[in-house]
Automatic annotation (TrEMBL):
GO terms for molecular function: GTPase activator activity; phosphatidylinositol bisphosphate binding; phosphatidylinositol-3,4,5-trisphosphate binding; zinc ion binding. It is found in: Cytoplasm. Residues 129-254, 276-380 form the PH domain. Pfam families: ArfGap (PF01412), PH (PF00169). The keyword Zinc applies. GO terms for cellular component: cytosol; nucleus; plasma membrane. It comes from the Eukaryota. Keywords: Cytoplasm, GTPase activation, Metal-binding, Repeat, Zinc, Zinc-finger. This is ArfGAP with dual PH domains 1. The gene is ADAP1. Its main location: cytoplasm. Residues 6-126 form the Arf-GAP domain.
Length: 486
């Protein structure tokens, strides 16, 4: 009898839809929720086990099954459950995979079956309303202490803001939705729902580290008003709130991108809402002269930008280098030049860019392999025209790296290529220059004067993408001598 049930279950697992975990998509699930009628992986079964009021789980292979339970599974299954519980998932909502952190998978499962957010759209208001405010613990830039801060996300203003005091009129920082990214970093931040938010400030990536309070009130900062503290303080509340913040930020970016790229489909926009880093970890690096000793630094690979930090929780990177594609002269080698000295870690990597070589060393062979995989992923991918923006940034030059384009007599703070669907479809690509006005930009023998701060210069697309690609352009205050190389 038991054998028959097992055979029937194994047959059910062959049905389309049942071959991947109903919640995270992991292949070959061999657990099941016999109250929801879904086949799930071992890892998701552990999450279901913590919600006994909605889900009861059994192993397909190890547990005993009753005939009615098997019949229930046959009647339902993963496709049917998806149709029932995921009928109204907003496009911007993050759908976790098996490689995501526990928090994202857990909250996805609870949102689906316990809170039933995707069959009751009014329950999506905490992240779909276009406005959200609340208190998050934010790590202080200089002292590393976490303090409670009021955060306000407003789609109308296209910004996430935070305030140092409850009654402050002016926000401490305004982070534009356009340049915002959020990723869960529980291990790095040392909190189960630690969220890293990055944005651009003065042409540098600024990191802030946050988590939601669990109803615990600690000293050291203004206390949240009572109406904002949870009625039943519990770790679960903080976890839900933090994922709601994450999805609210994704919703805001989604709506921003819909306006910026009117023709684009949801499938084009969704991958741009948030980015997980390709790789993070420690490596050793040396400076531009390659004669100084190697130093251990924390590295983050964010798409094509490799940044390094002295401490993983630093507010700003000490330096960053853009990694282009093979066709534009970038290569990654699994070794250091033979004469290299001064590194303690044995597994070398050389990144060759058109301008110079970057020498790195990893502690273990598996770390070296993981970094090489991350670098090759971007080197092997052809560059998009707007990605030439990153090339405007100078590679790191020792530990004194400052935002690029700084020069006497003015300040150039941002270079960016924009596809013009977001500005004016009649233009090609424009080079956006913000900061001090009165700059002369020179490329391929052509000079162009940028008239005012914040001006968007409409420039000859082909010429400019060529000169950015080959790096043969220079920027200078119009009254002073030209300064080569950004
Ligand atoms: Zn799963």
């Amino acid at each position: 009898m038991a054998r028959e049930q097992r055979r029937a279950l194994l047959e059910l697992l062959q049905r389309p839809g049942n071959a991947q975990c109903a919640d995270c998509g992991a292949p070959d699930p061999d657990w099941a929720s016999y109250t929801l009628g879904v086949f799930i992986c071992l890892s998701c079964s552990g999450i279901h086990r913590n919600i006994p009021q909605v889900s009861k789980v059994k192993s397909v292979r190890l547990d005993t099954w009753e005939e009615p339970q098997v019949e229930f599974m046959a009647l339902h299954g993963n496709d049917a459950a998806r149709a029932a519980y995921e009928s109204q998932v907003p496009s911007f909502h993050y759908r976790p995979t098996f490689s995501d952190c526990h928090l994202l998978r857990e909250q996805w499962i609870r949102a689906k079956y316990e809170r039933q957010e995707f069959t009751n759209p009014e329950r999506q208001e905490p992240y779909s309303a276009g406005y959200r405010e609340g208190f998050l613990w934010k790590r202080g830039r200089d002292n590393g202490q976490f303090l409670s801060r009021k955060f306000v996300l407003t789609e109308r203003e296209g910004a996430l803001k935070y305030f140092n005091r409850n009654d402050a009129k002016e926000p401490k920082a305004i982070m534009k939705i356009e340049h915002l990214n959020a990723t869960f970093q529980p291990a790095k931040i040392g909190h189960p729902h630690g969220l890293q938010i990055t944005y651009l400030r003065d042409n540098s990536t600024r990191n802030i580290f946050t988590y939601h309070e669990d109803g615990k009130v600690t000293s050291g900062g203004p206390c949240p008003p009572s109406y904002l503290t949870p009625r039943e303080p519990s770790p679960q509340h903080g976890r839900k709130e933090m994922v709601h913040w994450f999805n609210a930020l994704r919703a805001a970016r989604f709506h921003y991108l819909q306006v910026a790229f009117p023709g684009a489909s949801d499938t084009d926009l969704v991958p741009k809402l948030t980015r997980n880093y390709l790789k993070e970890g420690y490596m050793e690096k040396t400076g531009p002269k390659q004669t100084e000793g190697f130093r251990k630094r924390w590295f983050t690979m964010d798409d094509r930008r490799l940044m390094y930090f002295k401490d993983p929780l630093d507010a700003f990177a000490r330096g960053e280098v853009f990694i282009g594609s093979r066709e534009s002269g970038y290569t990654v080698l699994d070794r250091l030049p033979p004469s290299t000295q001064g590194h303690h870690w044995p597994h070398g990597i050389t990144i060759v860019t058109p301008e110079r070589r970057f020498l790195l060393a990893c502690e273990t062979e598996s770390e070296q392999r993981a970094w090489l995989d991350a670098f090759r992923k971007v080197v092997d991918r052809p560059m998009l025209p707007q990605e030439y923006a990153g090339k405007g940034r100078r590679g790191w030059s020792g530990d004194s790296q400052r935002p690029c384009g700084r020069a006497k007599g003015g300040r150039l703070s941002l270079f960016q290529w924009k596809p013009t669907s977001s500005i004016n479809p009649n233009l090609g690509t424009v080079l956006e220059v913000r900061g001090g006005g009165g700059w002369t930009v020179e490329a391929c023998g052509r000079r162009e004067r940028l008239l005012a701060p914040g001006l968007m210069g409409a420039l000859d697309t082909a010429r400019w993408s060529l000169s950015l690609a080959t790096g043969t352009f220079s920027v200078a205050p119009h009254c002073g001598p030209a300064r080569p190389g950004l």
